[in-house]
Design goal:
Keywords: Membrane, Transmembrane, Transmembrane helix. With 57 residues, the chain is mainly alpha-helical. The chain is 93% helix and 0% strand.
């Protein structure tokens, strides 16, 4: 899960950078998609941390 989260964060950051270089509506759509990947990656890392805390009890 940690690898998936880190990969999604990297894809999100790269997507936001590339989306900022695009023109018009396509750039906005790319930034929205990249933001979704970024938020998903953060969520995966938070779930991984919560599962590790539960399993250590």
């Amino acid at each position: 899960m940690k690898a998936v989260g880190i990969t999604l964060i990297i894809i999100g950051v790269v997507g936001i950078l590339l989306g900022s270089m695009m023109y018009g509506d396509i750039g906005i759509a790319a930034i929205i998609g990249a933001s979704g990947a970024l938020v998903s990656g953060i969520g995966f890392l938070q779930v991984n941390k919560a599962l590790q805390q539960l399993s250590s009890r």
